Protein backbone atom coordinates (compact mmCIF):
# COMPACT_ATOMS: atom_id res chain seq x y z
CA UNK A 1 0.00 0.00 0.00
CA UNK A 2 1.13 3.52 -0.82
CA UNK A 3 0.76 5.72 2.27
CA UNK A 4 1.96 8.88 0.55
CA UNK A 5 -0.66 11.56 0.00
CA UNK A 6 -1.60 12.26 -3.58
CA UNK A 7 -0.98 15.75 -4.92
CA UNK A 8 -4.65 16.62 -4.42
CA UNK A 9 -4.64 15.25 -0.87
CA UNK A 10 -1.47 17.19 -0.04
CA UNK A 11 -3.11 20.39 -1.27
CA UNK A 12 -6.19 19.58 0.80
CA UNK A 13 -4.03 19.00 3.88
CA UNK A 14 -2.31 22.35 3.38
CA UNK A 15 -5.63 24.18 3.15
CA UNK A 16 -6.98 22.53 6.31
CA UNK A 17 -3.78 23.21 8.23
CA UNK A 18 -3.82 26.88 7.20
CA UNK A 19 -7.45 27.22 8.17
CA UNK A 20 -6.85 25.76 11.63
CA UNK A 21 -3.83 28.01 12.20
CA UNK A 22 -5.77 31.11 11.19
CA UNK A 23 -9.22 30.37 12.67
CA UNK A 24 -8.69 27.98 15.60
CA UNK A 25 -6.29 29.65 17.96
CA UNK A 26 -7.12 28.17 21.37
CA UNK A 27 -8.74 31.27 22.90
CA UNK A 28 -11.00 31.66 19.84
CA UNK A 29 -12.00 28.01 20.01
CA UNK A 30 -12.80 28.40 23.70
CA UNK A 31 -14.92 31.48 22.97
CA UNK A 32 -16.88 29.67 20.26
CA UNK A 33 -17.55 26.68 22.52
CA UNK A 34 -19.15 28.99 25.08
CA UNK A 35 -21.60 30.62 22.64
CA UNK A 36 -25.21 29.48 22.36
CA UNK A 37 -24.64 28.00 18.90
CA UNK A 38 -21.36 26.35 19.90
CA UNK A 39 -19.50 26.96 16.64
CA UNK A 40 -18.93 29.61 13.96
CA UNK A 41 -21.34 30.15 11.05
CA UNK A 42 -18.51 32.02 9.34
CA UNK A 43 -16.33 28.92 9.56
CA UNK A 44 -19.19 26.78 8.24
CA UNK A 45 -19.50 29.04 5.21
CA UNK A 46 -15.76 28.69 4.68
CA UNK A 47 -16.10 24.88 4.82
CA UNK A 48 -18.61 25.12 1.96
CA UNK A 49 -16.53 27.56 -0.07
CA UNK A 50 -13.46 25.31 0.19
CA UNK A 51 -15.48 22.30 -0.98
CA UNK A 52 -15.12 20.28 2.22
CA UNK A 53 -18.89 19.80 2.63
CA UNK A 54 -19.10 18.17 -0.80
CA UNK A 55 -16.08 15.94 -0.58
CA UNK A 56 -17.84 12.57 -0.11
CA UNK A 57 -20.85 13.17 -2.34
CA UNK A 58 -21.32 12.04 -5.93
CA UNK A 59 -20.23 14.41 -8.67
CA UNK A 60 -23.71 14.46 -10.21
CA UNK A 61 -24.97 16.34 -7.16
CA UNK A 62 -22.07 18.80 -7.05
CA UNK A 63 -19.72 16.74 -4.89
CA UNK A 64 -16.20 15.43 -5.46
CA UNK A 65 -16.76 11.68 -5.02
CA UNK A 66 -14.04 11.55 -2.38
CA UNK A 67 -12.88 8.50 -0.42
CA UNK A 68 -12.63 7.83 3.33
CA UNK A 69 -8.92 8.61 2.98
CA UNK A 70 -9.71 12.02 1.50
CA UNK A 71 -12.09 12.78 4.37
CA UNK A 72 -9.52 11.58 6.90
CA UNK A 73 -7.16 14.33 5.69
CA UNK A 74 -9.77 16.95 6.62
CA UNK A 75 -10.69 15.24 9.89
CA UNK A 76 -7.09 14.93 11.06
CA UNK A 77 -6.41 18.59 10.37
CA UNK A 78 -9.57 19.74 12.13
CA UNK A 79 -8.77 17.45 15.05
CA UNK A 80 -5.58 19.39 15.69
CA UNK A 81 -7.68 22.51 16.23
CA UNK A 82 -10.56 20.82 18.10
CA UNK A 83 -12.95 22.17 15.47
CA UNK A 84 -16.57 22.54 16.59
CA UNK A 85 -18.54 22.81 13.34
CA UNK A 86 -21.18 20.10 12.58
CA UNK A 87 -19.26 18.36 9.79
CA UNK A 88 -19.88 14.95 11.35
CA UNK A 89 -23.62 15.32 11.82
CA UNK A 90 -24.41 17.06 8.54
CA UNK A 91 -22.03 15.44 6.05
CA UNK A 92 -20.68 12.16 7.40
CA UNK A 93 -23.90 11.00 9.07
CA UNK A 94 -26.97 12.74 7.70
CA UNK A 95 -25.74 13.51 4.19
CA UNK A 96 -24.06 10.14 3.77
CA UNK A 97 -27.25 8.30 4.76
CA UNK A 98 -29.27 10.33 2.27
CA UNK A 99 -26.75 9.43 -0.43
CA UNK A 100 -26.96 5.75 0.56
CA UNK A 101 -30.74 5.43 0.96
CA UNK A 102 -32.49 8.36 -0.69
CA UNK A 103 -34.39 8.26 -3.93
CA UNK A 104 -32.93 10.08 -6.93
CA UNK A 105 -35.37 12.90 -6.33
CA UNK A 106 -34.48 13.18 -2.63
CA UNK A 107 -30.75 13.21 -3.32
CA UNK A 108 -31.07 15.78 -6.10
CA UNK A 109 -33.14 18.00 -3.81
CA UNK A 110 -31.13 17.78 -0.57
CA UNK A 111 -27.48 17.00 -1.30
CA UNK A 112 -26.71 20.24 -3.21
CA UNK A 113 -28.08 22.25 -0.27
CA UNK A 114 -25.73 20.41 2.07
CA UNK A 115 -22.77 21.02 -0.22
CA UNK A 116 -23.56 24.74 -0.39
CA UNK A 117 -23.79 24.99 3.40
CA UNK A 118 -27.43 26.04 3.22
CA UNK A 119 -28.86 23.04 5.10
CA UNK A 120 -27.57 21.30 8.22
CA UNK A 121 -28.67 17.84 9.29
CA UNK A 122 -28.66 15.72 12.42
CA UNK A 123 -28.96 11.93 12.50
CA UNK A 124 -31.15 10.56 15.30
CA UNK A 125 -30.32 6.87 15.59
CA UNK A 126 -29.24 6.22 19.18
CA UNK A 127 -31.65 5.28 21.97
CA UNK A 128 -31.14 5.15 25.76
CA UNK A 129 -31.59 1.37 25.97
CA UNK A 130 -29.55 0.55 22.86
CA UNK A 131 -26.01 1.05 24.09
CA UNK A 132 -23.90 0.87 20.93
CA UNK A 133 -26.25 -1.57 19.15
CA UNK A 134 -27.20 -0.01 15.80
CA UNK A 135 -30.07 -2.49 15.31
CA UNK A 136 -31.90 -1.73 18.57
CA UNK A 137 -34.76 0.72 18.00
CA UNK A 138 -37.97 1.16 19.95
CA UNK A 139 -38.94 4.35 18.13
CA UNK A 140 -41.68 3.27 15.74
CA UNK A 141 -43.16 4.58 12.52
CA UNK A 142 -46.58 3.70 11.18
CA UNK A 143 -47.89 4.47 7.75
CA UNK A 144 -50.93 6.70 7.29
CA UNK A 145 -52.84 7.55 4.15
CA UNK A 146 -50.45 10.32 3.15
CA UNK A 147 -47.20 9.81 5.08
CA UNK A 148 -45.67 8.18 8.15
CA UNK A 149 -46.11 9.07 11.83
CA UNK A 150 -43.26 8.64 14.35
CA UNK A 151 -43.38 8.02 18.09
CA UNK A 152 -40.40 7.43 20.36
CA UNK A 153 -37.25 8.87 21.92
CA UNK A 154 -33.73 9.38 20.56
CA UNK A 155 -30.69 10.32 22.65
CA UNK A 156 -27.37 12.10 22.12
CA UNK A 157 -28.30 13.50 18.71
CA UNK A 158 -25.23 15.48 17.66
CA UNK A 159 -25.87 19.12 16.71
CA UNK A 160 -29.64 18.73 16.61
CA UNK A 161 -30.09 22.24 18.00
CA UNK A 162 -28.59 23.82 14.88
CA UNK A 163 -30.04 21.35 12.34
CA UNK A 164 -32.61 22.35 9.74
CA UNK A 165 -33.75 18.77 9.22
CA UNK A 166 -33.49 15.52 11.16
CA UNK A 167 -32.98 12.03 9.82
CA UNK A 168 -34.59 9.54 12.20
CA UNK A 169 -34.08 5.78 12.17
CA UNK A 170 -37.28 4.07 13.30
CA UNK A 171 -38.86 0.65 13.29
CA UNK A 172 -41.52 -0.10 10.71
CA UNK A 173 -41.79 -3.80 11.53
CA UNK A 174 -40.41 -6.46 13.87
CA UNK A 175 -39.20 -6.39 17.46
CA UNK A 176 -36.92 -3.79 19.02
CA UNK A 177 -33.69 -5.77 18.50
CA UNK A 178 -34.39 -7.13 15.00
CA UNK A 179 -32.00 -6.15 12.22
CA UNK A 180 -34.83 -6.24 9.71
CA UNK A 181 -37.65 -3.73 9.70
CA UNK A 182 -35.68 -0.49 10.12
CA UNK A 183 -36.35 2.57 7.98
CA UNK A 184 -35.04 6.13 7.84
CA UNK A 185 -37.19 9.26 7.78
CA UNK A 186 -36.77 12.97 7.08
CA UNK A 187 -38.34 15.43 9.52
CA UNK A 188 -38.21 19.20 9.69
CA UNK A 189 -36.44 20.30 12.86
CA UNK A 190 -39.44 22.42 13.87
CA UNK A 191 -42.05 19.73 13.16
CA UNK A 192 -45.20 19.61 15.27
CA UNK A 193 -45.08 16.97 18.02
CA UNK A 194 -41.30 17.12 18.40
CA UNK A 195 -39.84 17.94 21.82
CA UNK A 196 -36.12 18.54 22.25
CA UNK A 197 -33.73 18.97 25.17
CA UNK A 198 -30.38 20.49 24.17
CA UNK A 199 -27.20 20.26 26.25
CA UNK A 200 -23.44 20.82 26.01
CA UNK A 201 -21.05 17.89 25.94
CA UNK A 202 -17.92 17.57 28.05
CA UNK A 203 -15.70 18.38 25.05
CA UNK A 204 -17.53 21.60 24.14
CA UNK A 205 -19.79 20.05 21.50
CA UNK A 206 -23.59 20.04 21.43
CA UNK A 207 -26.18 17.24 21.52
CA UNK A 208 -29.87 16.76 22.20
CA UNK A 209 -32.41 14.24 23.39
CA UNK A 210 -35.51 14.25 21.19
CA UNK A 211 -39.03 12.93 21.80
CA UNK A 212 -41.46 12.28 18.95
CA UNK A 213 -45.21 12.24 19.46
CA UNK A 214 -47.22 11.60 16.28
CA UNK A 215 -44.66 13.48 14.18
CA UNK A 216 -45.26 13.43 10.42
CA UNK A 217 -42.25 12.14 8.50
CA UNK A 218 -41.08 11.52 4.96
CA UNK A 219 -39.72 8.06 4.20
CA UNK A 220 -36.10 8.13 2.99
CA UNK A 221 -35.80 5.68 0.12
CA UNK A 222 -37.63 2.41 0.64
CA UNK A 223 -39.17 0.94 3.79
CA UNK A 224 -37.25 -1.59 5.90
CA UNK A 225 -33.93 -1.04 4.13
CA UNK A 226 -31.92 1.04 6.61
CA UNK A 227 -29.69 -1.19 8.75
CA UNK A 228 -27.01 -2.09 6.19
CA UNK A 229 -26.75 1.49 4.97
CA UNK A 230 -26.60 2.76 8.56
CA UNK A 231 -23.75 0.38 9.39
CA UNK A 232 -21.83 1.40 6.26
CA UNK A 233 -22.26 5.09 7.07
CA UNK A 234 -21.18 4.61 10.69
CA UNK A 235 -18.09 2.62 9.64
CA UNK A 236 -17.00 5.46 7.36
CA UNK A 237 -17.73 7.98 10.11
CA UNK A 238 -15.56 5.97 12.51
CA UNK A 239 -12.64 6.39 10.10
CA UNK A 240 -13.11 10.15 10.32
CA UNK A 241 -13.41 9.98 14.12
CA UNK A 242 -10.11 8.09 14.34
CA UNK A 243 -8.39 10.51 11.97
CA UNK A 244 -9.66 13.40 14.09
CA UNK A 245 -8.31 11.66 17.19
CA UNK A 246 -4.91 11.31 15.51
CA UNK A 247 -4.87 15.04 14.83
CA UNK A 248 -5.85 15.81 18.42
CA UNK A 249 -3.23 13.40 19.79
CA UNK A 250 -0.48 14.84 17.64
CA UNK A 251 -1.29 18.36 18.85
CA UNK A 252 -1.52 17.19 22.47
CA UNK A 253 1.97 15.73 22.08
CA UNK A 254 3.31 19.00 20.65
CA UNK A 255 1.76 21.00 23.49
CA UNK A 256 3.31 18.60 26.02
CA UNK A 257 6.75 18.77 24.37
CA UNK A 258 6.65 22.55 24.42
CA UNK A 259 5.55 22.70 28.05
CA UNK A 260 8.12 20.24 29.34
CA UNK A 261 10.80 22.09 27.40
CA UNK A 262 10.02 25.39 29.14
CA UNK A 263 8.72 24.39 32.60
CA UNK A 264 11.62 24.77 34.99
CA UNK A 265 12.23 22.86 38.25
CA UNK A 266 15.42 23.05 40.31
CA UNK A 267 17.05 25.27 37.74
CA UNK A 268 16.43 23.25 34.58
CA UNK A 269 13.60 22.30 32.25
CA UNK A 270 11.69 19.21 33.37
CA UNK A 271 12.03 17.89 29.80
CA UNK A 272 15.72 17.27 30.51
CA UNK A 273 14.76 14.49 32.92
CA UNK A 274 15.00 11.07 31.31
CA UNK A 275 11.71 9.83 32.74
CA UNK A 276 9.89 12.74 31.04
CA UNK A 277 11.65 12.00 27.77
CA UNK A 278 10.57 8.36 28.02
CA UNK A 279 6.95 9.45 28.48
CA UNK A 280 7.13 11.70 25.44
CA UNK A 281 8.61 8.89 23.36
CA UNK A 282 5.81 6.55 24.47
CA UNK A 283 3.26 9.21 23.51
CA UNK A 284 4.91 9.63 20.10
CA UNK A 285 4.84 5.86 19.53
CA UNK A 286 1.14 5.71 20.39
CA UNK A 287 0.36 8.55 17.97
CA UNK A 288 2.26 6.92 15.11
CA UNK A 289 0.62 3.53 15.73
CA UNK A 290 -2.80 5.20 15.73
CA UNK A 291 -1.96 7.05 12.52
CA UNK A 292 -0.79 3.87 10.78
CA UNK A 293 -3.86 1.78 11.62
CA UNK A 294 -6.17 4.67 10.69
CA UNK A 295 -4.52 5.16 7.30
CA UNK A 296 -4.59 1.48 6.39
CA UNK A 297 -8.20 1.04 7.53
CA UNK A 298 -9.40 4.04 5.53
CA UNK A 299 -7.69 2.54 2.48
CA UNK A 300 -9.28 -0.85 3.08
CA UNK A 301 -12.70 0.73 3.45
CA UNK A 302 -12.23 2.77 0.28
CA UNK A 303 -11.15 -0.34 -1.59
CA UNK A 304 -14.15 -2.39 -0.52
CA UNK A 305 -12.09 -4.92 1.42
CA UNK A 306 -13.79 -8.02 2.81
CA UNK A 307 -14.74 -7.89 6.48
CA UNK A 308 -14.18 -4.14 6.61
CA UNK A 309 -16.20 -3.94 9.82
CA UNK A 310 -13.54 -6.00 11.62
CA UNK A 311 -10.81 -3.64 10.40
CA UNK A 312 -12.85 -0.65 11.56
CA UNK A 313 -13.31 -2.14 15.02
CA UNK A 314 -9.61 -2.99 15.33
CA UNK A 315 -8.80 0.61 14.40
CA UNK A 316 -11.37 2.12 16.75
CA UNK A 317 -10.16 0.04 19.71
CA UNK A 318 -6.49 0.82 19.04
CA UNK A 319 -7.08 4.54 18.51
CA UNK A 320 -9.33 4.73 21.57
CA UNK A 321 -6.61 3.24 23.76
CA UNK A 322 -3.99 5.52 22.24
CA UNK A 323 -6.16 8.60 22.74
CA UNK A 324 -6.72 7.85 26.39
CA UNK A 325 -3.02 7.26 26.89
CA UNK A 326 -1.76 10.33 25.03
CA UNK A 327 -4.39 12.63 26.52
CA UNK A 328 -3.85 11.29 30.02
CA UNK A 329 -0.08 11.52 29.81
CA UNK A 330 -0.35 15.04 28.48
CA UNK A 331 -2.38 16.08 31.50
CA UNK A 332 0.02 14.33 33.88
CA UNK A 333 3.04 16.05 32.36
CA UNK A 334 1.39 19.41 33.01
CA UNK A 335 0.70 18.68 36.65
CA UNK A 336 -1.92 20.77 38.45
CA UNK A 337 -2.74 23.06 35.52
CA UNK A 338 -3.44 20.12 33.21
CA UNK A 339 -7.22 20.16 33.63
CA UNK A 340 -7.74 23.87 34.15
CA UNK A 341 -10.16 25.43 31.69
CA UNK A 342 -7.68 28.13 30.72
CA UNK A 343 -5.02 25.72 29.44
CA UNK A 344 -5.44 23.72 26.21
CA UNK A 345 -4.19 20.25 27.15
CA UNK A 346 -7.26 19.43 29.23
CA UNK A 347 -9.52 20.29 26.31
CA UNK A 348 -7.61 17.84 24.10
CA UNK A 349 -7.98 15.18 26.78
CA UNK A 350 -11.75 15.77 26.94
CA UNK A 351 -12.13 15.61 23.17
CA UNK A 352 -10.15 12.38 22.99
CA UNK A 353 -12.39 10.86 25.66
CA UNK A 354 -15.47 11.92 23.70
CA UNK A 355 -14.08 10.47 20.47
CA UNK A 356 -13.34 7.20 22.26
CA UNK A 357 -17.01 6.63 23.13
CA UNK A 358 -18.44 7.97 19.86
CA UNK A 359 -19.89 5.05 17.85
CA UNK A 360 -18.59 2.54 20.40
CA UNK A 361 -15.82 2.54 23.00
CA UNK A 362 -12.76 0.31 23.24
CA UNK A 363 -14.59 -2.57 24.93
CA UNK A 364 -17.42 -2.54 22.40
CA UNK A 365 -15.09 -2.66 19.42
CA UNK A 366 -12.82 -5.28 20.95
CA UNK A 367 -15.90 -7.48 21.35
CA UNK A 368 -17.13 -6.69 17.83
CA UNK A 369 -13.72 -7.54 16.42
CA UNK A 370 -13.62 -10.82 18.35
CA UNK A 371 -17.09 -11.76 17.08
CA UNK A 372 -16.02 -11.16 13.49
CA UNK A 373 -13.04 -13.55 13.40
Describe the structure.
The chain is globular. Helix 5 (87-101) packs antiparallel against helix 6. Strands 1, 2, 3, 4, 5, 6 and 7 form a seven-stranded mixed β-sheet that branches. The protein has a two-stranded antiparallel sheet with strand order 8-9. It is built from eleven helices and nine strands. The protein has 373 residues and is of the alpha+beta class. The longest helix is centred in the middle third of the chain and has 36 residues, at 227-262. The model has no long low-confidence stretch (mean pLDDT 95).
Order of secondary-structure elements: HHHHHHEEEEEEEHEEHHHH
Helix content: 40-55%
Low-confidence stretches: none
Question: CATH class of the largest domain, please?
Answer: Mainly Alpha
Mean of pLDDT: 95
The amount of beta strand, in percent, is: 15-25%
CATH architecture of the largest domain: Up-down Bundle
Number of helices: 11
Derived from helix and strand composition plus strand pairing, the structural class reads: alpha+beta
Amino acid sequence: MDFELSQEQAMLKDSVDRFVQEKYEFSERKRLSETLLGYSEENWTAFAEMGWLGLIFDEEFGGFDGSPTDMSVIAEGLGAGLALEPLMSTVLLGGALIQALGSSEQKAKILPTIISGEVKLALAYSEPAAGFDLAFHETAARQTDSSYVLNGHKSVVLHAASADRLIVVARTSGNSADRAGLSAFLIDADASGLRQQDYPLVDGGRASDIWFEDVNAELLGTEGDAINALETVINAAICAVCAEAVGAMRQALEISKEYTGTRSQFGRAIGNNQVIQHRLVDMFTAVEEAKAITDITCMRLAGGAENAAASVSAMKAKVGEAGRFVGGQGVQLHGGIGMTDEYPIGHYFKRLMALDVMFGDVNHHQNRFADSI
